Amino acid sequence: MTPAATRSGLAATVLMCAVVASGCGVGPGESAEGTASLTVTRDYGAEVLTTATLEDPTPSDTVVRFLDANADIDTEFGGNFVSTIDGLEGSTVDGGPEDWFFFVNGIYSELGAGEVKVETGDEVWWDYRRWSEAYRVPAVVGSFPEPFLHGYEDGEEPVVVQCLAEPSQCEPVVSVLEDAGVDPEVENVTKPLQRLDVMRVLVGPWEELRADPAAAMIEDGPGTSGVYADIDECVPGDWELEILGADAVVRRVVPSGGFVAAVRRADDAPTFLVAATDDEPEAIEAAVSLFDPEVLRDRYAVAANIEPEEELPVPLPDDLPDSDIGCE
Amino acid sequence: MKAALAYAPRPGPLGHARPWIAAVYLAPLAVCAFAFSNPIVLAAALAAALLAGWASGAWPSLQQPLRWSVYLGLMVIAVNAIVSQRGATILLRGFEIPVLGQIDVSAEALAEGAVLALRIVTALIVFAVWSACVDPDRVLRAIRPFAARSALTATLIARLAPLAAADATRLAEAGRLRGPGAAPLARATIARRLIAGSLDRSVDVAATLELRGYGLGIRSRMPRHAREPGEPALLIAAAAMAALMIAAAIAGIASYSSYPTIAIDAGPWTLAFAASIPLIAIAPFVPGLVTEPRNA
């Protein structure tokens, strides 16, 4: 063997060792036992277009590869930005820009679809929606019991239910979490406690919940909170929920009832709000009744009205009628 | 010094054809490079362009563009493999590249890169055949009545580029003639001298143009060129190729997609379509098949 060939062989061996040592490898990698799920919807989850599952994900499975295997897509930026799914392409409709966004375990991803790995238990949700009023919707309730089951970063974040109502009124919320396989800690408190790395479920009347900075973002509108709702104080201590449409215009007013929404400040842990418009037991009960996987499925947020009794998606779809009842 | 794409009078119908006829003949091949993704069809279009160049005696002029385009194509394949994070068949996983993050290389990304590379090579070779076989002066004369200033600019560039190359050769030779002890002239030094002398060259050219009456504003007329015997065959071949491609596109044959897994239509219709492209392209060059041969 010539010296040059020896050097080349040595260099190749060193390179191979470096590749192996850095975690690189040949093939997709070892699969992890379990299932991940995919949901493709449009208009804030109003219409489900595709559902699929991925058995035993590998380290090479990314959000875009998962989608690619189950839908006809067009991408930009090397697969990081999905521009079209099954022929539905980002565009401007009625003056509002619409595009594809995705959540993993109910959390909006700041990374491109080609960079986010899919792991066992993950729920990937693609939604085609108007984004002029809220480009960034940091968290949604539609993948419940995620993110409580598999977390939002390393999967080991603790879950706390902060009860700002009567403890018995919060019990159904704890039960639903436990039934889903989550082991929450329960804190009976008189005001919300900020826990930046802990996923919280705040249960109680809005008058109490609004002391929490994450919850208070809702009063700043969907552009800040990502929740298409607003809350007005008609008389001191009596709040009224306004459900907005996709254009952020008030479509429906809930004088007494509740809602469930997810909010997230910057990189803090997400917070679920199970909020009632007032401290009447019926209002708390209406809010707590929404905290159900079937009710929350594929929704950004949901609201409940007591009179008439009805469950309403948030934002309110175009095909549901408006109401003209307001504070004034 | 001779430029790689230098035109030289060529034998055969393409070398004698009027510029617009040559353009019409080569256009379907260039369009094919962008209209179809099937690598079999792209390879066929490339083969057709190379055959047309070879039959026109331009093979030596095509070698360098072919080499360049292959290098460019290889680069496109490598970049696409790194940048594209699509494809279900993972070959290598887990490369960490700054800014781009973790990179997985998939067979589909390599295939997509190869298709892009084939497009580039095909398009470049079609234009190389055009450059090697079509007299640029005839092209410029043809466009002069419509775009006089553009034609003049293109003419000047076409003349000054080889002139600068010749000047560079002379400067290098002059440097070597200083004797064996003299330090060799670096390329940057020669380039600096060329740029320094370019103003003198431009003044010479401007004076020559003025003497020839370019500034008088007299509108030139469309030059008339005699019809060449091989031109109908080129037009028939172009029409046949275009019709075939339109029919293939309408019929939906020769489909191809890289993602999520490679899906290529390699059925008999696609193979027949691909085989017909080079056969039709070479037909005008076969003496006696479509037209009477003409002496070069």
The total of beta strands of chain A comes to: 20
Structural class of chain A: alpha+beta
List the secondary-structure elements of chain B in sequence, H or E.
HHHHEEHHHHHEEH
Q: For the terminal residues of chain A, how far apart are their CA atoms? A: 93 Å
Helix content of chain B: 55-70%
Question: How many DSSP-defined strands of chain B?
Answer: 4
| Amount of beta strand of chain A | 25-35%
Q: How many strands, what sense, and barrel or not for the largest sheet of chain B?
A: 2 strands, antiparallel
The chain-level mean pLDDT of chain A equals 89
Q: How helix-rich are the residues of chain A, as a percent range? A: 10-25%
Supply the number of helical segments of chain A.
8
- Termini of chain B, distance in Å? 25 Å
Largest sheet of chain A, order of strands side by side?
12-11-13-18-17-19-20
Q: How many individual helices of chain B?
A: 10
- Strand ordering within the main sheet of chain B: 1-2
What's the shape of chain B? globular
**Uncertain stretches of chain A:** none
Describe this structure as you would to a colleague.
The complex is a heterodimer of chains A (328) and B (296). Chain A is α+β, with helices and mostly antiparallel strands. Chain A has eight helices and 20 strands. In chain A, the strands form four sheets. Chain A has a seven-stranded mixed sheet with strand order 12-11-13-18-17-19-20. In chain A, strands 2, 3, 7, 8, 9 and 10 form a six-stranded mixed sheet that branches. Chain A has a three-stranded antiparallel sheet with strand order 4-5-6. Chain B is mainly alpha-helical. Chain B is 64% helix and 6% strand. In chain B, strands 1-2 form a two-stranded antiparallel ribbon. Classes of the chains: A alpha+beta (328), B mainly alpha (296). The interface between A and B is medium-sized, with 24 and 18 residues.
